[in-house]
């Protein structure tokens, strides 16, 4: 009599468990992920799905989720509607497809038993949902401060290079004049007595690499040229 009673209880338990399992599961899912990593400290992954079964399910029908070895719970948010969510640091968040395995209580218990002996063990899920993460924007590849610094370096290098080229051209002209070439500008400066001041200005610019530091020499040269012009005007 006791044996029959135990068999009856066991049969009822198995029948109840089978009745609570979703038969021919179908799912409609929508997913969301954080796309701008410049304004958040964690990347959020959220999927919401509606489960449809051929058999009616109890109101407290529990579901569980597993994503890449991470155990999660599926929160019930409505009639046969569930939500699975988790977060990751932006540096660890990868783009691509994240597969979410959904399990009922029976499948979840089977997975836990299998994991006790083999941490890498898997069981067939009730259903699987694929969440596509296109990747998160982490800001420009180079920030504005670094870009401004690089541009200033390029501008300074270009200016210095151009100044060196100008000085080189003037040096070549001076060498050619020393070889006997006639330069009307040099002749004019010789007649005005300002040639030495001109050389003095060029020597200062060459040594300091900044004409603004040679203002005194430049003013002296300009004064000499102005006096020469005034003298020429009075003679005429």
TrEMBL record:
Record's subcellular location: Endoplasmic reticulum membrane
Coiled coil start-end: none
Taxonomy, superkingdom: Eukaryota
Keywords: Disulfide bond, Endoplasmic reticulum, Isopeptide bond, Membrane, Signal, Transmembrane, Transmembrane helix, Ubl conjugation
Cross-referenced Pfam families: TRAP-delta (PF05404)
PROSITE patterns membership: CHCH, PROKAR_LIPOPROTEIN
Bilayer topology: Single-pass type I membrane protein
Function of the molecule: TRAP proteins are part of a complex whose function is to bind calcium to the ER membrane and thereby regulate the retention of ER resident proteins.
Similarity annotation: Belongs to the TRAP-delta family.
Protein name: Translocon-associated protein subunit delta
Organism (species): Danaus plexippus plexippus
């Amino acid at each position: 009599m006791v044996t029959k009673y135990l068999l009856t209880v066991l049969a009822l338990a198995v029948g109840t468990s089978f009745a609570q399992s979703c038969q021919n599961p179908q799912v409609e899912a929508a997913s969301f992920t954080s796309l701008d990593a410049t304004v958040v400290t964690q990347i959020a992954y959220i999927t919401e799905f509606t489960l449809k079964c051929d058999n009616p399910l109890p109101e407290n029908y529990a579901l569980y989720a597993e994503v890449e070895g991470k155990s999660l719970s599926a929160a019930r948010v409505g009639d046969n509607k569930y939500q699975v969510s988790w977060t990751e640091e932006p540096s660890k968040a990868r783009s691509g497809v994240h597969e979410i395995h959904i399990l009922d209580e029976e499948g979840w218990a089977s997975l836990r038993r299998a994991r006790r002996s083999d941490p890498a063990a898997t069981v067939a899920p009730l259903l699987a949902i694929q969440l596509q993460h296109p990747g998160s924007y982490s800001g420009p590849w180079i920030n504005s401060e670094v870009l401004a610094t690089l541009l200033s370096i390029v501008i300074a290098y270009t200016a210095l290079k151009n100044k060196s080229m100008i000085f080189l051209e003037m040096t070549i002209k001076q060498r050619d004049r020393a070889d006997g070439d006639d330069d009307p500008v040099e002749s004019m400066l010789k007649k005005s007595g300002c040639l030495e001041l001109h050389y003095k200005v060029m020597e200062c610019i060459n040594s300091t690499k900044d004409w603004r530091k040679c203002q005194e020499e430049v003013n002296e040269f300009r004064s000499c040229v102005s006096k020469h012009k005034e003298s020429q005007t009075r003679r005429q």
